[in-house]
Write a structure and sequence with these properties.
The chain is α/β, with parallel strands linked by helices. It contains eight helices and 15 strands. It has three domains: 5-91 and 181-211, Periplasmic binding protein-like II (D-Maltodextrin-Binding Protein, domain 2); 93-180, Periplasmic binding protein-like II (D-Maltodextrin-Binding Protein, domain 2, 3-Layer(aba) Sandwich); 214-280, Alpha-Beta Plaits. Helix content is 27%, strand content 32%. The longest helix is centred in the last third of the chain and has 21 residues, at 192-212. It is flat and about 75 Å long. The chain binds phosphoribosyl ATP (PRT) and zinc ion. The site of zinc ion has 3 residues, from loops.
């Protein structure tokens, strides 16, 4: 029997674009033109289910979907029996406690006896227990940031990315409880056929992620500086060196990681590298 892996993706919202883009970068063609609830990919044995993000962990646990793309914050909050297999590199945010900017609350201990509004009662109550804070939790499903202003709560616990929502509501971050990004979760009891499809999907996802974290670099170097320059460029194995038409010079090709980028470029320049080209990598297979 030809099996299909069922993938749960957020129907609309902050993770939709990133999820669809990742599938596309993995070479998986999906059209969701008619706002359908499920679609079969044209060229890979997967079927996409479009769902609310809050429902994804439970649907994956119950095998309605085999895997899902969802925020770690939702995975921790829902606490279902699913395995987190891979961070996906988008949907980055943090779950933080925030307090009025100019109020009497100043530190974590000040939250004792206070009311905290949140959509994450599970994560928050665990955190407060560990920190020995005795506060009451008011669960609300949206617009948490207005709760202190309308007198519903003294503090909030909500997702933050740029911080501008807190700023416009005259709140400030007190503590970060959790760093989060979109992750791939899986049902724990996939059939052998589904596991094979998942492995193939994970291989593609990892190749896309590696490519994003690396850049291809091409430069010209005087031959007497080649050793120093090659030591700055470890590459996947070692740099490729080709002679230039002009004698005494070589062309060096390598791969550098995004994190080291500016640091390495400066050192390359001071060591005599010229004509440096940095090129994005589409896929990286190691
Ligand atoms: O309809 P459905 O239930 O599927 O969607 P939803 O409304 O519950 O979720 P959605 O689309 O808002 O968020 C989906 C996921 O995106 C979250 O679970 C997080 O994993 C991730 N994510 C990343 C964020 C943010 N960044 C984010 N900034 N989710 C929400 N926010 C909100 C936050 O709640 C606050 O209101 O954005 C505001 C803060 O943003 P800044 O930039 O002003 O700090
Ligand atoms: Zn939601």
């Amino acid at each position: 029997m030809n099996e299909t892996l069922k993938i749960a993706v957020q129907k609309s919202g902050r993770l939709y674009e990133g999820s669809m883009k990742l599938l596309k970068e993995c070479g998986i063609e999906v059209s969701n033109g008619n706002n359908q609830l499920r679609v079969q990919a044209a060229n890979f044995p997967v079927e996409i289910f479009f769902l609310r993000d809050d429902d994804i962990p439970e649907y994956v646990q119950d095998a309605v979907a085999d895997i899902g793309f969802v925020g770690e914050n939702v995975v921790y909050e829902k606490n279902k029996l699913v395995a987190t297999l891979e961070k996906l590199g988008f949907g980055k945010c943090r779950l933080s406690l925030a307090i009025p900017k100019n109020g009497s609350l100043q530190k974590l201990a000040d939250l004792n006896g206070q009311r905290i509004a949140t959509s994450y009662p599970g994560i928050l109550s665990n955190y407060l227990r560990v920190k020995n804070i005795n506060a009451s939790i008011h669960e609300i499903s949206g617009s948490v940031e207005i709760a202190p202003r309308i007198g519903l709560a003294d503090a909030i616990c909500d997702l933050v990315s740029s911080g501008s929502t807190l700023f416009t509501n005259e709140l400030k971050e007190l503590e970060t409880i959790l760093q989060s990004e979109a992750v791939l979760i899986s049902n724990n009891q996939l059939s052998t056929g589904k596991k094979i499809i998942l492995e193939s999907l994970l291989f593609r996802i990892r190749s896309v992620k590696k490519a994003k974290n690396n850049k291809y670099v091409l430069l010209n170097a005087p031959n007497d500086k080649l050793d120093t320059i090659c030591n700055l460029l470890p590459g996947m194995r070692s740099p490729t060196i080709l002679p230039l038409a002009e004698s005494g010079w070589s062309s060096v090709h390598s791969v550098i990681s995004e994190g080291d980028f500016w640091n390495i470029i400066e050192k390359l320049k001071t060591n005599g590298a010229q004509g440096i080209l940095i090129i994005p990598i589409e896929k990286m297979i190691i």
